[in-house]
Design brief:
This protein has nine helices and nine strands. It is α/β, with parallel strands linked by helices. It has one domain: P-loop containing nucleotide triphosphate hydrolases (Rossmann fold, 3-Layer(aba) Sandwich), CATH 3.40.50. It has a five-stranded parallel β-sheet with strand order 2-7-1-8-9, with helices on both faces. Strand 5 and strand 6 form a beta hairpin. It binds adenosine-5'-diphosphate and guanosine-5'-monophosphate.
Length: 211
């Protein structure tokens, strides 16, 4: 989608978005393009104990922590949500999310379904998007061709794909990532529609009210 932002009206209040889906469905790919295309949308950099992949940067892709450091932050109540996913710990730090929303920006969390459930239980207003693969063979092919994980890691992620996908029904929106351009359009359409809701533009609406 070519998102024309020349006359984009930034929302007065940002929004929180949660995206989840089995590993390899294309969440990172969709999120990266949405961050480039949609003004005022920021990425929530999670903390994790998983080993850093080639090309990843500490503080950009994740905050890479030791298990001890992660556990200390859990005990301090620093996480909005956290979970063990594919044998590693992952969590969303509460403070940066609050700061980003407080500054009027929107924020996008790429988290697993356990984390998404915790966000739901927390009562914080958000829009959740579940990304589905066209089928499981395609998912397997994409995980292998990404070339970032060992075979044992890929096998584990595929085994757990069903569990992640079985939670899809609890999400607000679904995007099937088959043709990538279509998936980008649909993913960004969900975010843009939320940011254009009237309740995020009360000044704009008030400006045209009859006196
Ligand atoms: P996730 O973040 O959900 O684990 P990624 O975004 O890393 O998934 O995508 C997994 C792999 O599949 C990457 O190599 C990515 O380039 C590729 N990919 C993503 N979407 C598509 C698509 N629609 N068609 C073909 N390949 C895709
Ligand atoms: P990856 O290791 O491929 O980067 O991520 C593996 C899984 O962990 C993905 O499903 C991703 O969404 C999830 N994940 C990443 N960050 C977080 C987080 O902060 N919290 C939770 N619960 N899951 C996360």
């Amino acid at each position: 989608m070519t998102l024309h932002t020349t006359s984009w009206t930034p929302p007065e209040q940002g929004a929180l978005f949660v995206v989840a889906g089995a590993s390899g469905t294309g969440k990172t790919t969709l999120v990266k393009e949405a961050l480039d295309a949609i003004p005022g949308l920021k990425f929530s950099v999670s903390a994790t104990t998983r080993p850093i992949r080639p090309g990843e940067k500490d503080g950009t892709d994740y905050w890479f922590l030791t298990r001890d450091a992660f556990t200390t932050r859990v005990e301090n109540g620093d996480f909005l949500e956290w979970a063990e996913v594919y044998g590693n710990l992952y969590g969303t730090l509460r403070a940066p999310v609050q700061q980003t929303l407080g500054a009027g920006f929107s924020i996008l969390l790429d988290i697993d379904t356990q984390g998404a459930e915790q966000v739901r239980q927390s009562g914080i207003a958000h829009t959740s998007v579940f990304v589905l693969p066209p089928d499981l063979q395609t998912l397997s092919r994409r995980l292998s061709s990404r070339g970032t994980d060992e075979k044992a890691v890929i096998d584990r992620r595929l085994r757990e794909a069903h569990e992640q996908i079985s939670a899809a029904g609890t999400f607000d929106c679904i995007v099937v990532n088959d043709d990538l351009d279509s998936a980008h359009d649909q993913f960004q359409a969900i975010i843009v529609a939320e940011l254009l809701r009237t309740n995020r533009h009360s000044r704009l609406v008030g400006q045209f009210r009859a006196r």
